[in-house]
Amino acid sequence: MLRERLRRQTLQSFDYQWAGISAGDAMLSDPWFVERVDRILAKELLALDAGWFEGRSVLDAGCGGGRWTLGLLRLGCRVLAVDASPHALESTRAQMTRLAPEAVAEGRLETLQVDLLDLPASLACRRFDLVYSF
Q1: Residue 126: which residues within 8 A CB-CB, separation 6 or more?
Q2: Per residue in 43-77, pLDDT tens?
Q3: What's the CA gap between 94 and 48, in Å, rounded?
Q4: Count of CB atoms within 10 A of residue 90's CB?
Q5: pLDDT-derived band of residue 17, with 50, 70 and 90 as boundaries?
Q6: What is the phi/psi pair of residue 93, to 5°?
Q7: Does the reported pTM lie above 0.85?
């Protein structure tokens, strides 16, 4: 009972944060970060050649506001961005429409509201080249 209540509180807290926190360093409100997100992701965080990503299928698990989703799309990936927060997913869709319109138009972005601690069978059976969670 307590565990479930704490879980609900955590999910509500993250949803509240994504609804109200839109600015900051290393976020999509930071022009320096937006310009470099793909290089930061490939070279600094994953230590992979940028060419590796082209055409890959990626699960962005807990995508938040979409900052790493943007990097993955710019690197040429097909991205399923999932989060428990409806506000986070709303932000991700809006930001990708603004910052990566070609990828959205090409159908390389899919979003899905998911509690990763209670994975639906429809997601559990899917396969990805990379599962990313920051």
Answers
A1: 59, 80
A2: 999 999 999 999 999 999 999 999 999 999 999 99
A3: 28
A4: 16
A5: confident
A6: -60, -45
A7: yes
